[in-house]
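re: the backbone from monday

yeah here it is again, tokenized this time
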């Protein structure tokens, strides 16, 4: 038996350290390296030492401790730091060795790095890892993409540390070549933005529109978590609303200015580049941007002094329907975006597999993903999730309550951008006729951009002398 290690982890911050501990706990021999040696020592003084992690204090030392083909998992900040680590590894790795980027890298960077690494005779993976600190330590959802040969080498290791879905399957499966893994992780994060926004809008409508206390709302969320909305985010929302800080509900103490790290924005930019209407994620991103300037909002509130009215007649059950329907739209848009990317980059994405590996470990884990998995297993070529019978029935059943919740929010002066945009998308997608004909006429009038005609085959273009 070799005394060499199976894998090295570069970057022992929260995520890197927890993945290293997870790998070691699953029986792998792990080397840990951090640019700042004190961080390595701190990990070794704790769980790292107990689980047999081996410390390294230079890239050269770390590489020398690895069994060939060497596997190096890079867990540093996305962007230039990843490129710097890759360059430093080139000096020490040999043909057939594997570099894995487990951070939140932009998918185009991953595709570029794969080409570069493979040109040196090495193999490269860009893997999306979701689940936060707890998931990394005890079982995340993992989305690997890049060199297929690299995946075949590390598949048992990655599946061994991944979360297990209710049916026992690891929440880790091959996504596709190039930047496919990081693209799917990006869309996951975009959907996460949307999930958090639709939950926040439910909270706002019940708090300001219905006058409910945090404790009352906590009970409502707990009830929802026993039904079709059962999920990690609904569960923790219930817990948050039941939590006090110095005698006050903690939500009343926290400043209403949301932060973001960029993956939601990347999702919206990608949707524009690929021509896909990911409107709910867009509204979630913009809602965070609006929230981030409370001083500007305070000035506007002083100018307009618009009172918030009561949402008379609207019930928490109707808000639940609006939340569920909007959630369906958000996921449908996300899966459309992934399919468009798959077509554009020839990735061969399998939407059923993607939904399946999101069922546990990740932030958006929910019972709802079982229904999405089933839809794509039944119809692998399903063009849009809202065309599936299960989701079509759910949207039809929710429509009246959804409209009442949105109308009530508008009348009360409470913004509900995610619910509103999801409803607008739903209405647009089932409209056989939209006003874009007038837009095309305007474009032709001022710019001779031409237009198609309803009485002629698609692809024939005409210009009118206005």
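seq for it, each position gets an aa:
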């Amino acid at each position: 038996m070799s005394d060499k290690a199976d894998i090295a982890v570069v970057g022992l911050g929260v995520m890197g350290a927890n993945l290293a501990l997870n790998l070691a706990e699953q029986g792998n021999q792990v080397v840990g390296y951090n640019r700042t040696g004190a961080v390595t020592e701190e990990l070794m003084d704790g769980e790292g030492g107990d689980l047999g992690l081996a410390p390294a204090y230079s890239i050269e030392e770390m590489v020398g401790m690895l069994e060939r083909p060497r596997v190096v998992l890079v867990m540093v900040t996305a962007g230039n730091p990843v490129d710097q680590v890759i360059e430093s590894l080139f000096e020490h790795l040999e043909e057939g060795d594997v570099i894995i980027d487990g951070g939140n890298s932009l998918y185009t960077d991953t595709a570029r790095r794969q080409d570069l690494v493979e040109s040196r005779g090495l193999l490269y993976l860009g893997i999306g890892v979701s689940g936060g600190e707890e998931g990394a330590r005890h079982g995340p959802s993992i989305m690997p993409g890049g060199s297929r040969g690299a995946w075949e080498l590390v598949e048992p290791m990655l599946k061994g540390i991944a979360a297990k879905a209710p049916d026992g399957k690891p929440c880790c499966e091959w996504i596709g070549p190039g930047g496919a893994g990081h693209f799917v992780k990006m869309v996951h994060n975009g959907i996460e933005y949307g999930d958090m926004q639709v939950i926040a809008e439910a909270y706002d409508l019940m708090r300001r529109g219905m006058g409910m206390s945090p404790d009352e709302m906590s009970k409502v969320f707990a009830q929802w978590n026993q039904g079709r909305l059962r999920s990690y985010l609904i569960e923790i929302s219930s817990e948050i609303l039941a939590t006090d800080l110095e005698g006050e509900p903690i939500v009343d103490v926290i400043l209403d200015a949301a932060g973001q790290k960029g993956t939601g924005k990347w999702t919206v930019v990608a949707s524009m580049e690929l021509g896909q209407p990911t409107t709910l994620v867009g509204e979630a991103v913009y809602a965070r941007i609006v929230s981030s300037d409370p001083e500007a909002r305070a000035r506007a509130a002083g100018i307009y002094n618009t009172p918030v009215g009561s949402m008379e007649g609207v019930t928490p059950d109707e808000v639940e329907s609006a939340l569920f329907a909007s959630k369906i739209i958000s996921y449908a848009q996300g899966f459309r975006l992934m399919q468009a990317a798959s077509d554009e980059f020839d990735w061969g994405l399998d939407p059923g597999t993607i939904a399946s590996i999101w069922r546990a470990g990740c932030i958006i884990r929910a019972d709802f993903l079982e229904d999405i998995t089933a839809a794509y297993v039944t119809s692998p070529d399903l063009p849009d999730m809202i065309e599936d019978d299960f989701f079509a029935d759910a949207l039809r059943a929710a429509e009246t309550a959804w409209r009442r919740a949105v109308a009530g929010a508008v009348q009360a002066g409470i913004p509900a951008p995610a619910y509103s945009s999801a409803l607008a998308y739903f209405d647009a997608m089932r409209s056989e006729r939209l006003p874009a004909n007038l837009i095309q006429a305007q474009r032709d009038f001022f710019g001779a951009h031409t237009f198609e005609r309803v009485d002629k085959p698609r692809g024939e273009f005409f210009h009118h002398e206005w």
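The chain has a mean pLDDT of 95. Residues 178 and 345 are 9 Å apart (CA to CA).
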